[in-house]
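USER: I would love a firmer grasp of how sequence relates to backbone shape in proteins. This is the protein in question:
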Amino acid sequence: MGAPRNTAAPAARLDAGLVERMVAIRRDLHRHPELSGAEERTSGAVADRLGALGLASRRLGETGLIADIPAADGTTDGPKVALRADMDALPISEETGLPFASRNPGVMHACGHDGHTSILLGAAEALLAAPAPAPVRLLFQPAEEIARGARALIKDGALDGVAFVFGVHLDVSVDTGRLLVTEGPVNAALDNFQIRLVGQGAHAARPHHGVDAVVAGSALVMALQTVVSRELDPADRAVVTVGSFHAGTAKNVIAEEAVLEGTLRSQSPDVRRQLRDGAERLARAVAETHRARAEVEIFPGPPALINRPAPTALARTAAERTVGAGQIGELAKANLGGEDFAEYLEHVDGCFIRVGAAHADRPNSPQHSSRFDFDEAALEVGARYFRHVAHVAGASLRS
């Protein structure tokens, strides 16, 4: 299904009053960040704003929300276009010095989800003023940072009746006013693992009486890297990271147990399978080599986020209407970070894009850092894109 023709585009820019409301909402959410699965105040604030717009919302996935906007002809039946925003924050102590900095110690919106939520609320208001050809479903998703929110909403019926789903992510590595629309892989599949190595404790002066879990674990950390460097095609992008290694209780004791935790990142089903199989095989082999025993658990996360051609064409048309063809780019290389928007794409067509949000007048700190902030001018661009993509995709459904 290609991009529709002869679809009337809404007005070029959003009303200044709407933009002010979006900024105010973003700053309120930023002051009151909530961790994944605990977005009670956030969900309440979103519900209140939707209610003020005359939209009824319903809770899904504990703290998630959905609401439907009728089509231009007033109907809510038929296939819908869904727009998604994530709402959760991170366990980070904020150091931005912003006047609206987090008031919740140790919790911070360090990934722009406060902005995503504000963007979707702004788009809702804009779509009520200029309805799309097909009904629009708003998805306010919790728990993206722990990769559980999308699955919970899908399980509770968030995609029922949905034909397309679109999402955005603010990106401070991209100039404000630019949009990155990329066909193909955008984010990686994410699997976490825990490997428990069990040896035999002993006195540090008599290692021959024990089975040293620290030595076995150290060997395993290095061996796991060979799954990528020696078992995968060098053209395949993948990462194995051991992020946590805990072992031992005292300096003069041979450690009986070591626990390694980490993550596997990949961008194709075949490579994902190779990483999982390789990590488990090496864990058991290295443990046996060192006379230890390995207990391996792999916790599957979201799949790779891959934008398919047809919905990406719709997204590109909407992006061009938002900022002009000269301001559209593509990711130079796919991101190996996980993104559970990919869960929606396992069920319906859709596209996930990046919205430039770099400050032009000061340094930009990366996402998930204690000094992260974005240019609030990007909120208007993101909401305008959502409005356009709802019109473009909606017209394709009604053509």
